[in-house]
């Protein structure tokens, strides 16, 4: 049987030789409340409480990633530690990169929850001309001179992309951590208008979009497959997309 929140909290506290009194003071809760938490006599704690407990435990001795994540999960919360783009790129293993190459001649890539491109195969650069690794897909859509020429369904593509961004922010419960990125995108009037619409998608259905080959002028329909990569150190922050001709 998996541990309860209280059982895991008690184990982590004992492992650091911290008294209930010391942990309660450090986390900003009462000793009686902490006692009830450890005994399973209180409802699930709030994010503020879990953040305080994790911060104090981690300050005594660094919490393992899996213990930190498990505490949030047992509390019914999503951990909101926001990884950097560099940390997420480090999550892309050589095997994952080889898998992208195996998708050739079809486009395939990994991106993060802010639409930063983490890794891509060669065909992604053909389908999205001018989009390079270490670039941001939404900035490409709204700001690159070739985007509207290459994406025949540009209006639909950007609407889906913005709705997908909103869906991921909600799923990660990390809205405040996206404020800077949303501010960057706010320079584009089209983004502001779409964001104000409030549309949300989780890509449960495969988007169907039309692209133009800028070399030949040929237009072609593509089916996109988009899903979360829930393995690794940062589940929910890395995503995959693949595109095949419809």
List the helices and strands and how they pair.
Blueprint (H helix, E strand, L loop, with lengths): L4 H11 L4 H8 L3 H8 L8 H14 L4 H10 L10 H6 L3 H9 L4 E6 L4 E4 L1 H6 L9 H7 L3 H4 L3 H19 L6 H7 L3 H9 L10 E5 L6 E11 L8 E8 L1
Antiparallel strand pairs: 1-2, 1-5, 3-4, 4-5
Helix pairs in contact: 1-5, 2-3, 2-4
Architecture overview:
With 246 residues, the protein is α+β, with helices and mostly antiparallel strands. It has 13 helices and 5 strands. The protein has a 5-stranded antiparallel beta sheet. A hairpin with a 4-residue loop joins strand 1 and strand 2. Helix 2 (20-27) crosses helix 3 (31-38). The chain is elongated, with a radius of gyration of 22 Å. The mean pLDDT is 92.
Provide a concise account of the structure shown:
This protein is α+β, with helices and mostly antiparallel strands and 246 residues long. The protein has 13 helices and five strands. It has helices spanning 5-15, 20-27, 31-38, 47-60, 65-74, 85-90, 94-102, 122-127, 137-143, 147-150, 154-172, 179-185, 189-197, and strands at residues 107-112, 117-120, 208-212, 219-229, 238-245.
